[in-house]
Amino acid sequence: MITEWWTALSPIMKVLWAVTLAASLIFLIQTVMTFIGASSDTDLGADGMDTDFDVSDPSDMHAGPSGMNLYTFRNLINFLLGFGWTAILLSTSVRSTVLLLVIAILVGIALVVLVMYLFKWLSGMQQSGNINVYKSAVGCQGTVYLTIPAERSGEGKVQISIQGAVREYNAQTDGEEIRTGTPIKVVEVINPGTLLVEELKSYIV
In degrees rounded to 5, what are phi and psi of residue 64? Predict the structure, then answer.
């Protein structure tokens, strides 16, 4: 049954279904990782490596609403999810291919923006709890969520374990750039939403 259905699809629909199903699977994995406190976001650079944009600068054209970074793997998956399912569901009712693509692209963009605001809201709720970050954050360890530029030239993001909960903060460093996934330690609290961190290096005794 499935084989017959797949064979009957046009080449374009086969590609669309493959991309959409793959994006859906990755989205589910990301969701599970988010709830268990793992990082699944990666900055996307032109060379395929992690590249962090200075989203603290309002003039940075790469920054999204309220300084949120648009160029992440999570946002790519969200876009493909919205674009793919919209195109598939409307493929039989919208006869114009151009109109179908325009609608699918708009839905994909809307989903990206919606999810970005959702995570920003959740992050704000986390940081507005009863934790006194000045007293509790220094010395805490965690991992880099978005790459931290070198020598306080911009902000990245970190997730740290503080009082038994995983929380996300903006972060700067005095040293070299610290890339996504690198273990870090908090050395100073710059303000309630921004931490000064350093790379946590393991020493063999």
Answer: -95, -160
pLDDT tens digits for range 58-75: 333 334 444 445 567 888
Q: What is the pLDDT of residues 116-128, one digit of tens each?
A: 888 777 666 555 5
By DSSP bridging, strand 141-146 and strand 183-191 are antiparallel
The residues, any chain, with a CB within 8 Å of residue 135's CB and separated by 6 or more, are: none
* Whole-prediction pTM: 0.47
CA angle 102, 104, 106 (to 5 degrees): 70
Decide if 53 contacts 63 (C-beta within 8 A): yes
Nearest-CA neighbor of 148 among 76, 198, 75? 198
* Distance separating alpha carbons of residues 57 and 42, to the nearest angstrom: 20
What are the CB-based long-range contacts (under 8 Å, 24+) for 89-92? 91/13
Residue 94's contacts (CB-CB under 8 Å, 6 or more residues apart) are 100, 103
SS3 138: coil
Domain 133-199 sits in CATH 3.40.50.800: no
Contact assessment for residue 148 and residue 156, using Cβ atoms and an 8 Å cutoff: yes
**Greatest Cα pair distance in the chain:** 69
25 or 38, which is more confident?
25
